[in-house]
């Protein structure tokens, strides 16, 4: 019996000519002929499971009927369904069984988003990528051990595969690579990054010998959004002080006229023009006579202590010729230590 089999996708269709035959109604026999989007979410794809849609593909018979070679329009077994399966985070042709909760998710991000939304905080947890042992083929639904291709239908789960991270992705334009020192996969091309041993992460080659190292600076949370930086999918910025934060958080801080590192309070930019304007403000605003006294200051930029005449706008550091711009320990008029918010913070907030 010869029939015409139609493979339908969302963006394309592929028609097999009548040389294929239906020989085995079992879903383990080969590829499914009708691929339809899952009703549960538009970003997840799932093949239909009707028995009459299942065909057995015999490559040897195809080659024989075509004179020993497939036509140029044929799709190889490994490339079947490429980029048509996956989730909002990755294009892949398999799903992961989470060893922590025994549930099935397309990727670890889908798992983490689902568990973080649970009402019981004791049930919230994250998937450890290295502990994944089982995957489920998105084409034939066969559950198996982690591998590059399906043991049943031969489909390649992802054009990029890392057996260490159990990571699959059909979109190789990201230029994924595995860093042995980080222990995880990263994107952007191996030749464009180097691993800083002290900072404990991969940085752009432009920062080689051109950044201030802070031990394990990337193995911390972003000081703005508190997301863990080391394995975050967002871009990261390294400040002059060596501390790190998300690039989008860094940009948002600057838009709010905040120019100090949230961790150490050092200046993130060249503030010389701001100091010049502040000098003019201080010179034009004389303090009453009862406030003509010196105070001890601790400069956040150079970490030196010194003395400066008190002023509500700020106190200039004599070492780096900058103005102390955050909370510094100064003696109060009764001689005890106290915190004081210097005037530059007030000055900047007025702009």
Automatic annotation (TrEMBL):
Q: Where is the RING-type domain?
A: 222-265
Where would I find the CHY-type domain in this sequence?
80-155
> Which residues are in the CTCHY-type domain?
157-221
Q: Where is the composition biased (Polar residues)?
A: 36-45
UniProt keyword terms in alphabetical order: Metal-binding, Zinc, Zinc-finger
Could you tell me which residues belong to the region Disordered?
23-48
Does the keyword section mention Cytoplasm? no
Q: Name the SUPFAM superfamilies for this protein.
A: CHY zinc finger-like, RING/U-box, Zinc hairpin stack
Give GO terms: molecular function aspect only. Answer: zinc ion binding
Q: What PANTHER family does UniProt report for this protein, alphabetically?
A: RING FINGER AND CHY ZINC FINGER DOMAIN-CONTAINING PROTEIN 1, ZINC FINGER (C3HC4-TYPE RING FINGER) FAMILY PROTEIN
- Spell out the protein name for this chain: Zinc finger (C3HC4-type RING finger) family protein
């Amino acid at each position: 019996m010869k029939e015409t089999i139609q493979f339908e996708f969302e963006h394309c269709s592929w028609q097999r000519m009548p040389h294929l035959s239906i020989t085995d109604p079992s879903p383990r026999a080969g590829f499914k002929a009708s691929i339809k989007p899952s009703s549960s979410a538009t970003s997840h794809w799932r093949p239909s499971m009707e028995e009459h849609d299942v065909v057995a593909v015999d490559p040897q018979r195809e080659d024989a009927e075509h004179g020993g070679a497939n036509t140029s329009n044929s799709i190889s077994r490994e490339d079947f369904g490429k980029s048509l399966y996956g989730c909002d985070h990755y294009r892949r042709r398999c799903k992961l069984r989470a060893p922590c909760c025994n549930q099935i998710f397309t990727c670890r991000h889908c798992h983490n988003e689902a568990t973080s939304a649970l009402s019981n905080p004791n049930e919230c947890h994250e998937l450890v990528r290295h502990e994944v042992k089982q995957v489920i083929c998105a084409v034939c639904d066969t559950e198996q051990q982690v591998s590059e291709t399906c043991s049943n239908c031969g489909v390649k789960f992802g054009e990029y595969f890392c057996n260490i991270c159990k990571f699959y992705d059909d979109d190789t334009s990201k230029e994924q690579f595995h860093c042995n020192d980080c222990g995880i996969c990263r994107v952007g091309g191996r030749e464009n990054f180097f691993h800083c041993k002290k900072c404990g992460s991969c940085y752009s080659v432009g920062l080689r010998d051109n950044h201030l190292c802070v031990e394990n600076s990337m193995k911390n949370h972003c000081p703005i959004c508190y997301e863990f930086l080391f394995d975050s999918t967002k871009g990261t910025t390294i400040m002059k002080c060596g501390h790190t934060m998300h690039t989008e958080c860094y940009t948002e801080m600057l838009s709010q006229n905040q120019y100090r590192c949230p961790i150490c309070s050092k200046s993130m930019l060249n503030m010389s023009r701001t100091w010049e304007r502040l000098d003019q403000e201080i010179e034009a605003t004389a303090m009453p006579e009862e406030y003509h006294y010196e105070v001890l200051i601790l400069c956040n930029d150079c970490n030196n202590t010194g003395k400066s005449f008190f002023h509500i706008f700020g106190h200039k550091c004599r070492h780096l010729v900058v103005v102390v711009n955050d909370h510094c320990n100064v003696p109060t008029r009764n001689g005890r230590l106290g915190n004081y918010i210097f005037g530059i913070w007030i000055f900047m907030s007025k702009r």
